[in-house]
């Protein structure tokens, strides 16, 4: 007996929930061979604003958690990804048209990437911060702190690894994230959202939008409650205009051409979105 296909409509991931786009728009996601795979929500300006509100509300709890706790939460994501490995492999094979071996390698690299960054959560501060030499009876200590809400345009040519490589390092220091997934390859991003929703990641820490980066990015770049902008996947956009819009609200911007390769794990990707606070304290008795 031949069963009827049940086309799936993937939703956005905002504030720990899976809403439809407020605009009601969707678009078809097709395989590398042009076959229909699913419908995906096409996020609007309002959806981007809702995602920023959710991310802002989550900053206090996530940045206030201990570094050890954040590391354990990130490691838990890797554990859950390992359990759904076959699903992600199948999605990447269909979407990118690569072999099962290549898809497996991408999924394994994404899992390893979560583990790598989880391990840095309670260690990066010892590398990025320091006790500064001063003349006088004082301690002078530099401490890295999270920037706040980071908006990310994910790499557009990668289903999973590029997304993970951009999102994970921003989370390590306590930032929250609004990420625009690959427009052409969004299914693994939404499947990852399902992993996040069933993990220990607090709601609002990661918010995933699907649709057109060209439509959504300008609103994130100009949003006054976004503290930083990662344009790693915005090379095909007019990212100079995005930088100008971000400058109006004094955002930190990581442009696509700055040399930080999202496909390579790097301490520099963690420190790209931290601020350094310097504290003075007297020595001895007061």
From TrEMBL:
<dbReference type="InterPro" id="IPR015590">
    <property type="entry name" value="Aldehyde_DH_dom"/>
</dbReference>
<protein>
    <submittedName>
        <fullName>Aldehyde dehydrogenase</fullName>
    </submittedName>
</protein>
<dbReference type="GO" id="GO:0016491">
    <property type="term" value="F:oxidoreductase activity"/>
</dbReference>
<dbReference type="Pfam" id="PF00171">
    <property type="entry name" value="Aldedh"/>
</dbReference>
<dbReference type="InterPro" id="IPR016162">
    <property type="entry name" value="Ald_DH_N"/>
</dbReference>
<keyword id="KW-0560">Oxidoreductase</keyword>
<feature type="domain" description="Aldehyde dehydrogenase">
    <location>
        <begin position="22"/>
        <end position="237"/>
    </location>
</feature>
<dbReference type="InterPro" id="IPR016161">
    <property type="entry name" value="Ald_DH/histidinol_DH"/>
</dbReference>
